[in-house]
Write a structure and sequence with these properties.
The chain has about 260 residues and is α/β, with parallel strands linked by helices. The chain has 2 domains: about 190 residues, 2-enoyl-CoA Hydratase, Chain A, domain 1 (Alpha-Beta Complex), CATH 3.90.226.10; about 50 residues, Lyase 2-enoyl-coa Hydratase, Chain  A, domain 2. Helices cover about 45% and strands about 15% of the residues. The chain has a 6-stranded mixed sheet with strand order 1-2-3-5-7-10, with helices on both faces. Strands 4-6-8-9 form a 4-stranded mixed sheet. β2, α1 and β3 form a beta-alpha-beta unit. The radius of gyration is 19 Å and the shape is globular. The structure holds hexanoyl-coenzyme A. The site of hexanoyl-coenzyme A has 21 residues, from α2 and β6. It catalyses: a 4-saturated-(3S)-3-hydroxyacyl-CoA = a (3E)-enoyl-CoA + H2O; a (3S)-3-hydroxyacyl-CoA = a (2E)-enoyl-CoA + H2O. It comes from Albidovulum aquaemixtae. Keywords: Fatty acid metabolism, Lipid metabolism, Lyase. GO terms for molecular function: 3-hydroxyacyl-CoA dehydratase activity.
C-alpha cells in the first residue's frame, strides 16, 4: 500500500512504519493520522506481521500536531470532528506489540503517540516534550495522563507547565523510555527487539499487553486476579506445553499460536 505520509515495510514478521513528512518534522496532520490508522489496521490483520515498529526520521519522530492545519479551527469544528480522537483509536485497539523507535524530536502529539506504543526505545539525540502550553493549549491525546503515570506528577507538571524538553538520558532515568541506543543503531535495535518478540507465542504476547495495560485501569487486587487468570488460561494452550517442554529438552521452542 502506497501512502503519502508513511513508508511501510514488512520484513521478518515485523512491520516497520516510518512517519514521513520531512518538510514538517513529521507533524501529525489529519492525512497522516488517517494513514497511520490504516497501516496499523493492516498490520493487525496481516498474518505475516507479529510485531510493529513505529519510527520517524533522524531529526524527528514527530514534532506534534500540525499547527498550520489546526490553527484556524473553531471549537465547534474540533469538538464535532473529535480532533485526533478517532485517529488514535486503532492504535489503542491493536493487540500486536508496538515499539516506538524515537530519534530527534518527540513533542506534543509526537510524545503522546510514542507513549501510546507499548514501549519506547530512544536514540541518544531524542528530545521529548509537551510544549502545548506555549501555544495556549494543553496536550490532547493523553499527555497529561500517560506522562504522569510514566514519570510521576512532579516531572509531568514541570514538562507540561514549562514546556521544556527532556533529553534521552533524563527520559530513561525517569522511566519514560525503556532504553537509549546510539542514533545510528536505533532502527536496527528496535527491529532486533521486535524480531525477538515475534518469536514468542502470540497468545502470550497478547496476554502480556492485556495484563500490563490493565494495571492502568484497575485496582492492584483486581489486576493481580486478572493476571493470575490469564496465567492459568495459558495452560490450555499448546504453546505452554511446547515452551516448557523445550526448556526441559534444552532446545528452542517452536510456537504455533495454538
Ligand atoms: C507544523 C511544524 C511543526 C508542527 C515543525 N514544523 N513542527 N509544522 N506543525 N508541530 C515545521 C516548521 O514550521 C518548519 O516548516 C519545519 O517544520 C522545520 O521546523 P523548524 O522550526 O524550522 O526547525 P527547528 O528550528 O530545528 O525547530 C524544530 C522544533 C520546532 C523545535 C521541533 O519546529 C518546534 O518547536 N515545533 C513545534 C513543536 C510543538 O509546539 N509541538 C506541539 C504541537 S501541539 P517551514 O515551512 O517553516 O520550513 C500538539 C497538540 C497535541 O501536538 C494534541 C493532540 C495531537
Amino acid at each position: 500500500m502506497a501512502y503519502e505520509t508513511l513508508i511501510v515495510e514488512i520484513e521478518d514478521d515485523v512491520a516497520l512504519i516510518r512517519l514521513n513528512r520531512p518538510d514538517a518534522m513529521n507533524a501529525l496532520n489529519s492525512k497522516l493520522l488517517e494513514e497511520l490508522g490504516d497501516a496499523l489496521a493492516g498490520a493487525e490483520s496481516n498474518d505475516k506481521v507479529r510485531c510493529i515498529v513505529l519510527t520517524g526520521s533522524d531529526k524527528a519522530f514527530a514534532a506534534g500536531a500540525d499547527i498550520k492545519e489546526m490553527s484556524e479551527k473553531s471549537f465547534v469544528e474540533v469538538f464535532t470532528s473529535d480532533l485526533f480522537g478517532a485517529g488514535t483509536e486503532t492504535m489503542l485497539r491493536c493487540r500486536k506489540p508496538i515499539i516506538a523507535a524515537v530519534a530527534g524530536y518527540a513533542l506534543g502529539g509526537g510524545c503522546e503517540l510514542a507513549m501510546m506504543c507499548d514501549f519506547i526505545i530512544a536514540a541518544d539525540n531524542a528530545k521529548f516534550g509537551q510544549p502545548e502550553i506555549n501555544l495556549g493549549v494543553v496536550a490532547g491525546i493523553g499527555g497529561t495522563q500517560r506522562l504522569t503515570r510514566l514519570v510521576g506528577k512532579s516531572k509531568s507538571m514541570d514538562m507540561h507547565l514549562t514546556g521544556r524538553f527532556m533529553d534521552a538520558a533524563e527520559a530513561e532515568r525517569s522511566g519514560l523510555i525503556s532504553r537509549v541506543v546510539p542514533a545510528a543503531k536505533l532502527v536496527p535495535e528496535a527491529m532486533a527487539a521486535a524480531r525477538k518478540i515475534a518469536e514468542k507465542s502470540a497468545l502470550a504476547t497478547m496476554a502480556v499487553k492485556e495484563a500490563v495495560n490493565r494495571s492502568y485501569e484497575t485496582t492492584l487486587r483486581e489486576g493481580l486476579l486478572f493476571e493470575r487468570r490469564l496465567f492459568h488460561a495459558l495452560f490450555a494452550t499448546e504453546d505452554q506445553k511446547e515452551g516448557m517442554n523445550a526448556f526441559l529438552e534444552k532446545r528452542q521452542p517452536q510456537f504455533r499460536d495454538k
